[in-house]
Queue: 2 jobs
Job 1
Amino acid sequence: MFTLPPLPYELNALAPVCSAETLEYHYHKHHQAYIDKLNALLASDTTHSEGTSQWTLESLKELVKTAPAGALFNNAAQALNHQLFWQQFQAPKEQNKPEWALEQAIIQQRESFEAFQAAFETSALNNFGSGRTRLVKTPSGTLEIVNTSNAGNPLTDGKIPLLTVDVWEHAYYIDYRNRRADYLKNFWKIIHWEYIATL
Ligand code: MN
């Protein structure tokens, strides 16, 4: 059985960028629902659950890499996507930037950190429908901005997600209604760059 992983902060810790009400729905209802559905699917799927009594983050990643397209992949990937999403935040800070080494790696790909932020926001704004926009590390070590749809995770292409913005409407509709661009502008304030540098 998978269980909902604890949030690394209180429900109101990310306000006003992301309100307690948004977290109440996004974490306690949406994330929980993916985990419940995944457990129900695994209970009737011995191919993927046999011999596994203790599910960990690593075994969840393996499941996402090997599950066939369909409900099992969708719910496993959404369980993973949300677990990774919550880990990357901390209380809001103005002038929030990565530490030196990661900032230099980003600047190597995009002229400046601000140019990277603009490219990331544009990519997320143009990510049609439900999905995620990420900064990923490729197998050759370069950094890329990647859009995925629905439950997609770049791990299935051998890329390691570093920074992720969830642009499903459930991620921002309570606080920002249809203003995805405002959500994206504020998103930068709550990024826990020290954590991201460890990925
Ligand atoms: Mn979500």
Note: Residues 26, 30, 82, 166, 168, 170-171 surround manganese (II) ion (CB under 6 Å).
Job 2
Amino acid sequence: MTITFTPATGLLASLDLLRVGLADSVAHVQLHRPDKRNAISDTMLQQLHTALINLPSSVRAAVLSGAGKHFCAGLDLTSLSESTVAEGVAHSRMWQGVMDTLQFGRFPIVSALHGAVVGGGLEIASATHIRVAETSTYYGLPEGQHGIFVGGGGSARVPRLVGVACMTDMMLCGRVLDAQEGYQRGLSQYVVAEGQGVAKACELAQKIAGNAPLSVFAITQALPRIADMSQPDGLFVESLMAAIAQGDESAKQRMRDFVEGRAAKVRHPA
Ligand code: 1HE
């Protein structure tokens, strides 16, 4: 599916390390520093945050992609060498804040991955809700080789996708996963042919944008939190969230639509 995005104007257009496009309920945010493989400087990270919190209220889902040969080369390594321990903590907390805005912001985000998704690039991808990987995609955590550690929420999010053992391998031994291995281990939910990532991500974002808002809220906000709770606590929150979601008028209308034969049935995927 191709969506025709209109380039954003005003503040969103002034973010020179991003390209922001808008189309009704879907936005496309592209990391746009292709000559540096979309390496994330502090300015770029702040621009990403600014874009996310300033997208119009009509936006119900977003696509995140990277310009050029790679999705993202991670942290801009030129920025790290001279920082003190205190600055390092502050820098990591800044990254974590922006990654939280990705994961727990107002709308779900579908990332379209290709080429290198490494270091902070993988931390960004793992903070998005759905990941679509083109066949050129590969995942690495070279922090172990650089003598540093992840600082953008990677230690919390990546093991939840691939497990601690796999992340340990990626960091201690420099193991790199290709698109297929990443898919098998849960790093992406979809693998598509080269050049098809944004189109597939747009198709999924459009589908998500049509979902009932409280259902989307439950899936993006409650589900990951419930997964971190004890089972009794999680089940308690689940009941509250279920009642809130199904009490919404748009949910009731959808259920009436099904009962009265107006809604699509669930079909075998083949
Ligand atoms: C960069 C960066 C960067 C490229 N910071 N400048 N991330 C890494 O350890 C990944 C480091 N980068 C690479 O391994 C490779 O550059 C890539 C596999 C991503 C791409 O390779 P390639 O051959 O397509 O490009 P290139 O020729 O290596 O890079 C093109 C330019 O981008 C070059 O600059 P130029 O001025 O010489 O043209 C590179 O220096 C520059 N570049 N990657 C700065 N990362 C919250 S904590 C997160 C911690 C981390 O993310 S650590 C992992 C960092």
Note: Residues 6-209 form a domain with the 2-enoyl-CoA Hydratase; Chain A, domain 1 fold (CATH 3.90.226.10).
